[in-house]
Design brief:
By secondary structure, the protein is an alpha/beta fold. The longest helix is centred in the N-terminal third of the chain and has 20 residues. The strands form three sheets. It has an eight-stranded parallel β-barrel with strand order 8-9-10-11-12-13-14-15, surrounded by five helices. The protein is built from 19 helices and 15 strands. The relative contact order is 0.10. The radius of gyration is 25 Å and the shape is globular. The protein folds into three domains: about 120 residues, no CATH class; about 100 residues, no CATH class; about 240 residues, Alpha-Beta Barrel (TIM Barrel), CATH 3.20.20.60.
């Protein structure tokens, strides 16, 4: 597995990286404004090693393949690779998806592995606009450029600059191309850069079929950027709003009082989002008189826990919606956690196969005694940043006069560093949730350490995606 900066690409590399990346390197050496890019080769030998004696089999069942994807997700970043962990995770996910597509074409395992393509990582300070541009194919009339803006805006001066650049680029290449551009903000200056080109073979057809829109064909072929390594889990409230682009859902059971409605909504989510992770978080019910909540409250009330179990078992087992897992809420001790696991096991709910157990981390004790929780066994952690901040800082985020404490996130970040590292070492998936995700320093920290996902209300998801986009290193494909 190798890394190749674009400035070191040699003609002999063309058959390995493809003509588009090779032509992009030519433009780089000709002095055109091409972004700084490195090419990462896929870990083909490592993947073949994971398959071991199954490498020549063409009859691997779904379970074997799922185990392979999981092993690939856990491939360790080579020590000599100076990459952040979140970039490495994104690359692995890209190769997994490519592997699946190749297998779907009825290719052999070896053929699918050998078909994996190198990926480009683009370095940028702050992408404020992005899009595509090309020369319209009108041989009878004067050629004109088409500039498509997918994100942000360009000033008239920048549009004119990009128009000129596209014509200059087209003169240097034999065949027509689509040019993918970004507007990169470096301190107080804005620079247009080309980060990808794609040879186009559709121009002849377009001259015959006037009704086909070039922009439509390009748009259908475009993979939206930036690729965001974080998974976005929307926190379900008492409504039927569903985001088809969501990569997961945290179903907060306490928000929906009626059991029948809870079953219908959970079933609807799991059916509509078949490829997403649906985490059914047992109700965090608060008894203000006794001063108990979360797991202790459920253990204390057999009837309350039974309702939660009935909902989960009906949706997962009777309706066979196996993308639904369970989360244990607001735990205050390992003993409490173990007792809840025993109660669930009696009801037939245990960690096995696709059924994962998530632990909500809401109090400092969970992280102080983290090794004991790891020994007890769980698959993923949902870190409630707001609860942790309040318990650590001794204040309430809901009190306006104390809102100043919300901006001081240093203590929370420091407290989370070691536990997150320990959980990642133990292959624990980490989702963070709470209003503090909107704190710029907290969000940047979460991106840098490479948490698995973030939980967010549906109405704030798009805004948060934009925020993540500006904070994270860019992988543009």
């Amino acid at each position: 597995m190798n890394i190749l900066p674009i400035k070191f690409i040699h003609p002999s590399d063309k058959h390995l990286i493809g003509s588009d990346l090779f032509n992009l390197s030519k433009l780089y050496h000709l002095g055109f404004p091409v972004a700084e890019i490195i090419i990462i080769y896929p870990p083909k030998s490592e993947i073949k090693h994971l398959l071991n004696h199954n490498i020549y089999s063409n009859n691997l069942n779904r379970d074997h393949l799922e185990k392979l994807w999981e092993k690939m997700e856990n491939l360790v970043l080579p020590e000599d690779f100076n990459l952040k962990i979140n970039i490495w995770k994104e690359l692995i996910n890209t190769w997994i998806n490519e592997f699946k597509k190749e297998l779907a074409k009825n290719k052999t395992l070896i053929g699918s592995i050998d078909s994996l393509r190198p990926q480009a990582i683009v370095f940028a300070e702050k992408v404020v606009a992005k899009g595509r541009a090309y020369i319209k194919p009108h041989p009878e009339i004067k050629k004109d450029s088409e500039i498509l803006i997918d994100h942000g805006i360009l000033t008239p001066k920048q549009l004119k600059e990009l128009d000129k650049l596209v014509f200059e680029l087209e003169e240097k290449l034999i065949f027509p191309h689509i040019y993918y551009w970004i507007l990169d903000q470096e301190e107080n200056t804005y620079k247009l850069k080309i980060y990808k080109i794609k040879e186009s073979h559709i121009f002849d057809d377009l001259q015959v079929k006037d009704e086909i829109s070039l922009s439509t064909l390009i748009k259908n072929d475009q993979i939206d950027l930036p690729k965001i390594h974080l998974k976005f889990f929307f926190e379900q409230e008492d409504n039927f709003s569903i985001d088809g682009n969501a990569q997961g859902v945290i179903f907060n059971s306490e928000n929906i009082k009626d059991v029948e409605r809870k079953i219908v909504l959970l079933s609807e989510l799991a059916t509509s989002l078949k490829h997403a992770e649906i985490i059914f978080k047992l109700g965090d019910y608060i008894d203000t008189k006794l001063g108990i909540r979360g797991t202790f409250r459920l253990i204390d009330s057999i009837s309350l826990l039974k309702k939660e179990i009935d909902v989960f078992n009906f949706v997962r087992n009777k309706k066979r919606l196996f993308n639904v897992s369970v989360a244990i809420p607001y735990v205050r001790s390992v003993d409490e956690f173990l007792e809840m696991k025993r109660d669930l096991a009696v009801a037939g709910i245990s960690r096995k196969g696709s059924l994962k157990f998530w632990l909500e981390i809401a109090v400092p004790e969970n992280l102080i005694n983290l090794e004991d929780y790891l020994t007890a066994g769980f698959d993923g952690a949902i870190i409630n940043l707001d609860f942790l901040a309040e318990n650590l800082g001794g204040f309430s985020l809901s009190e306006e006069e104390l809102s100043g404490y919300k901006s001081n996130s240093k203590y929370l970040v420091e407290f989370l560093k070691s536990p997150i590292k320990l959980m990642q070492k133990n292959k624990i998936k980490i989702i963070t949730k709470g209003s503090l995700i909107q704190n710029s320093d907290v969000l940047k920290f979460l991106i840098d350490v490479g948490v698995y996902g973030i939980g967010v209300n549906l109405n704030k998801m798009e805004a948060l995606k934009e925020e993540v986009f500006f904070h994270q290193p860019k992988i543009l494909t």
